[in-house]
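<purpose> Linking amino acid order to shape
<body> The protein record starts here
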Amino acid sequence: MIEYCPCGNNKVYEECCKPFIDKKEYPDTAEELMRSRYTAFTLGKVDYIINTHIEKIRPVKERKKMQRWMNSIEWLGLSIVKTEAGQANDEIGMVEFRAIYIEDGYTEALHEQSNFEKIDGKWYYVSGTHLQNDKVYLKY
C-alpha cells in the first residue's frame, strides 16, 4: 500500500516531506516548509518544528509541552488557502492554511496565516496569526 504524505501534496512521504524532516534536503519554498512542518506535527517530530522556527523565537523551552500536545491530537488534513511570495527566489513569504484535527473528541480547525523568512538559503517560520479557531463540535 502506498503511503501518501500527510501534507496532502499527493506524493509519497519518502519523496515529499521526509527528506526535509530527515535534514537530507531543505524546502525550496515557504509552502514546502509549511507543509513539512504540518507533516512533522502529524508524526510527532517536535525537533523539526523547533529547528524550523527562526532562531530568535525558537521555542526550545516549550519542547515537552509541544510534544504532549502533538501526541494528544489526531490530524485529519491540511489545505492551503493562499500563498504570497515565498518562492525559491524570495526572501520572505506568507502561507495561509487550514489544518483539521481531533482533540479531546472534538474536530477543530487551525486557520493561520504564517510568515516565513529565508536566511542563508533556508526557510524558517517567523510568526503566525490565528485567523479563527473553528470548533466543529463533532464528538468522537
